[in-house]
Amino acid sequence: TPRKKTTPAASCSHVSKWEKIS
């Protein structure tokens, strides 16, 4: 998730979803 570096803490949950899908 390249966005992980540029996303706020709020997006952490949405990032976790993508990581699980990957």
UniProtKB/TrEMBL annotation:
Tree of life domain: Eukaryota
Region ranges (Disordered): 1-22
Designated name of the protein: Uncharacterized protein
